[in-house]
Amino acid sequence: MKFVKLNNVSLKKKLIAIYLIVSILPIMSLGYFLTSQLYESTLSHDISLTISSHKQLQDNLLGVFRSNSGVLEGLLRDPRVMDYVETYYEEDYMAILDFTTYISPVIRRTQMDHINTYIRIYSDNKAIAHSEETGNSMQDLYEESWYNGQSYTATSRLSWVVTDRINKGNPAKYIGCFRELKNIKTNTINRVFAVFFDESQLYSLISQEQESGKVIFLVNEKGQIVTSTERSMILENISELAGSFSSNFDDIENNTYTNFNGQHYSVIRTTFSKSNLAIKNWTLVTLIPAQNLQATVSKIWFTSIGLSLVCIVFSLILVLWVSNNIAERAKRLIRKMNQVISSNYNIKIFSSGSDEIGSIEQHFSDLVQKTGELINEVLIANLKIKDSEINYQKLQTEKREAEIIALQEQINPHYLFNTLETIRMNLIIENDRKNAEIVGLFAEGFRVAINRDRDYFSLAEELDFVRTYFKIQVYRFRGNISLIIDVPEQLLCVHIPRLLVQPLVENAVYHGIEMKGEPGTIRIAAYQQENDLCIKVSDDGVGISESDLKMIMDTLHDQKPREADRLHSRIALRNIHQRLILMYGETYGLQIESVLNKGTQVLIRIPINENLPLIEADNGGDADNV
């Protein structure tokens, strides 16, 4: 009963209902699943990039510290600087002379290589107080704010400080590294070497991150902010900035979220140590605005929803178009059926497609046509019988003609071959062995030429055929022509298209040697070049002029030969060239070179790896003269 009610619903409504069930629900489910996967993948990718950027930033910052600690180490390793600081001069001019000669160039060169870098040497040697760099006493050191009047552990290791009181004319922040040296005798600190560099060197590395809203802190082991994108917080202790963070800084862990200055951030935090730089438990923190990640997520969701809506709308339009197409075709077929019911058998019913409705239209058209044919059965039957008889007679006539032509093509060559063999035997009976040998050679060559059973010869078989042909030419030219064959043994078993070399030898005889009027030589050589077989046929005949050679080359590449070429021997060259191109491609065929009055050379190039399988040659390697 339910199926009967479903059958009463129009086809268009059924298709739309099926579309809603089969298309929209899967599209929405799949869209949600793919969007969730894409969100997770994008979020993971963004976090991975941020971690990589964070690690690279850490390495770059360490590079700055390494560079400036290298300046300090360079001073400590310079024997002239150490001698100067440890020498107690009795005369001021000697101290000034050594400073001008040795110390000042070192300091100036260092400051030129490291801009905004300041050198301070503190000592108990009052004889060297002649410059801002060296004229600093230990008492001056104790009064420095960054030193705080305390004695660091005199272990000759580096120590790092942050201060804003190095250059009175420049209120910038400075990071300094210093090393304390002991007096061995008194076991007290009597020298301190310090190098200070502008904090802007660090800020230049992190400033670009501000464009994306990131906040970065570099904090030393004491909690003091060494550098930051928040410029006002440098030198502050980060633990004392409780009002800026939503929780204690020490409690903020890596890959968590926190609030800073009222905004929500994702936290990337690493703690690192470098013993060779005396850096221990320093912390680099990168705060990424959560809205940046949320913007990416929103973009993904909006894109997904947009694409889903586009797919739904497009598929709905497609379903409506298909349903309307089916409904209109069904209505048109019903109208035709009503005309047939009214006994109109002359209507034209055209199939509107190859689908099921088109098949119904075609079968209905056949039914109408059959019905009309039954009405005129006698007339139509007679016409069909006559047409069938005419077609059958025509087919039988064409079949007999084809059989006659085939028999003629089979009989004529064998008749000629048998005739030649009869002539040869008669010559032998008459003891005319020379002419009998010529006729025998001709018959043998003719036998090979008419053999259509094989499309390929081995190179050895082809050369045997060339030798047979050439022996006839030797008789014709009374021994004034010679043939030299130079072919490696391993190439004799290679298959080549039948009758490939003989036409080239024939051309060399008739158009090279014969026109020369003098004794001549034809050479056949073969060699392998990578996967190609190269066969070279050359003669020392009259050669070809440049204009004629150009005409021949043009003929080789013509798709259809001109009528003038059909009467010229160059048609043989063209046929060989075109045959090789059809068999192997445009890169193969004939190459012709010639010099007038010196001779001609034709090169055949065919692929070895595309020939038939190799066979054993009937004889060994060819390197003979005929």
* Oligomeric state, counting identical vs distinct chains: single chain
- How many helices? 15
End-to-end gap:
99 Å
* Average predicted confidence as pLDDT: 76
How many whole angstroms does the radius of gyration measure?
51 Å
Low-confidence stretches: 151-155, 401-412, 564-568, 611-620
Strand tally? 18
* Count of folded domains: 4
Helix content: 40-55%
Strand order of the largest sheet: 16-17-15-14-12-18
Strand content is 15-25%
Report the principal-axis shape.
Answer: flat
Largest sheet composition: 6 strands, mixed
Provide an overview of this structure.
It is a single chain. This protein has 626 residues and is α+β, with helices and mostly antiparallel strands. 51% of the residues lie in helices and 19% in strands. The strands form 4 sheets. A 6-stranded mixed beta sheet has the order 16-17-15-14-12-18. Strands 2-1-5-4-3 form a 5-stranded mixed beta sheet. The protein has a 5-stranded antiparallel beta sheet with strand order 7-6-10-9-8. It is flat and about 140 Å long. The two termini are 99 Å apart. The relative contact order is 0.06. The model is unreliable at 151-155, 401-412, 564-568 and 611-620 (pLDDT under 50).
What is the fold's blueprint, element by element?
Layout: H1 2-7, H2 11-77, H3 79-86, H4 92-113, E1 117-123, E2 136-137, H5 138-143, E3 159-163, E4 174-183, E5 188-198, H6 200-206, E6 215-219, E7 225-228, E8 257-260, E9 263-274, E10 279-289, H7 290-341, H8 356-375, H9 377-429, H10 433-450, E11 456-458, H11 459-476, E12 481-487, E13 495-497, H12 502-513, E14 520-529, E15 532-539, H13 546-557, H14 563-566, H15 570-584, E16 589-595, E17 599-607, E18 622-625
Parallel strand pairs: 1-2, 12-14
Antiparallel strand pairs: 1-5, 3-4, 4-5, 6-7, 6-10, 8-9, 9-10, 11-13, 12-18, 14-15, 15-17, 16-17
